[in-house]
């Protein structure tokens, strides 16, 4: 296990020796991670280890106390654990909201929102509904459509499916895998679920329990979307289960499903 993984060719996201503290308490120390164009990296680690903090620093929402986060992608989208939709706007207007902020005209907004909604497998009927009228899975589809509506080349996912049941989670994982492949975006995908990481990502990065940053990385065999259930079972039940890198996840994390 190495705290200094091999450098990635031409990263679109380069996080270098990032450290952060809240109210004087260190929550991240010397975290480094590179992600290449079109590469999906799963970031796993127990609750409170600093995953969201690292993602916020990477996305430029939070300024780190130490280290740097260089963003070389063109534009990013974000999906959070809760959908964070505007309650007074329809699904369609929620999806189009980033386009409105970008000053894009009404007709183009409508066209692009319809495209993103279709990508997220939302039906036209759903688009006139308000968030309260949608199921949890539908809301998260709206959040995904909103994240991709400006055709980002990088997307941050912060435990987007943790609140959903297993079958729904699988369908939305497939949706992410498909849209990532089609549009070629790279992603930082935070999850508690190693099985989810094994399905979605090209590579898994593991965070240490006590804010000491990324303790190691493992490449995943094959391509997301092409791994058989047997292979996924062998990864999560076999190689990951016996790999000391993942041991603290099994020990510490009671929320892991
Ligand atoms: N704004 C804040 N002010 C003070 N402390 C914070 C703040 N945000 C996060 N923390 C603390 O920093 C640590 C890391 O938090 P962070 O949200 O990054 O963890 P996480 O790995 O994303 O956890 P989870 O898996 O539960 O989402 C935690 O101990 C948390 O309580
Ligand atoms: Mg978090």
List its traits:
binds adenosine-5'-triphosphate; binds magnesium ion; disordered C terminus; 3-stranded antiparallel sheet; 257 residues; 6-stranded mixed sheet; 35% helix
Report on this model:
It is a single chain. The chain has 257 residues and is α/β, with parallel strands linked by helices. The protein has 2 domains: 170 residues, P-loop containing nucleotide triphosphate hydrolases (Rossmann fold, 3-Layer(aba) Sandwich), CATH 3.40.50; 67 residues, no CATH class. It contains 8 helices and 9 strands. Strand 1 and strand 2 form a beta hairpin. The C terminus is likely disordered. Bound molecules: adenosine-5'-triphosphate (ATP) and magnesium ion. The site of adenosine-5'-triphosphate has 11 residues, from helix 1. The site of adenosine-5'-triphosphate (ATP) has 11 residues, from helix 1.
The unique ligands bound to this protein are: adenosine-5'-triphosphate, magnesium ion
Q: Report Rg.
A: 18 Å
The succession of helices and strands, N to C, reads EEEHEEHHHEHEHEEHH
Structurally, how many domains make up the residues?
2
**Largest beta-sheet details:** 6 strands, mixed
Portion in beta strands = 15-25%
What is the average per-residue confidence, as pLDDT, rounded to a whole number?
92
The level 1 CATH classification of the largest domain is Alpha Beta
Helix content: 25-40%
Distance between the termini: 25 Å
CATH topology call of the largest domain: Rossmann fold
The H-level CATH homologous superfamily of the largest domain, spelled out, is P-loop containing nucleotide triphosphate hydrolases
The 3D shape can be described as globular
Structural class: alpha/beta
Strand count: 9
Strand order of the largest sheet: 5-6-7-3-8-9
Continuous helix count? 8
> Would you identify the CATH architecture of the largest domain?
3-Layer(aba) Sandwich
User: Spans with pLDDT under 50 lasting ≥5 residues?
Assistant: 253-257
